[in-house]
Amino acid sequence: MISSDAITWNAPNEEHPARTAGQRSYSAVAKGDLDEWLTIYAEDCVLEDPVGPSMFDPEGKGHHGHEGLKAFWEKAIASVDKFEFEINDSFANPGGNTCANIGKIKTSFPDGSYTTTDLIMVYTVNDEGRIASMKAFWEPERTMASFTKP
Q1: Which pTM was predicted?
Q2: Cα(83)–Cα(52) distance, rounded to whole angstroms?
């Protein structure tokens, strides 16, 4: 498991390539390290965060490849001061290439305001253990309703 003050892992933690890739992704985001984050994803990956149309992806078709990930980073990650991940459950069948993590992400902004997102994140890895697909199921309206001023 990745050790980070930004990740609280309250879930099963048996070794699994998709679980490990998800943990590595959380760690890179928490550190604000785009270059490290890109190494975790396959060149032909698809990221849907959230799944469906949203402020980050108006057409709901996902972000494709590393260029798509870079654009998503600029829209959704770069302006955030601090991410805190709390994973409360994780499902990954041995011998498979997919893991679903259930938890929440606290997103704090430079002015001290924050939101909390309850979500399910589904990771699928390729044969090299790199993320081929990530689907985050969450509702923007619920996240915005959690907005807390400093």
Answers
A1: 0.96
A2: 23
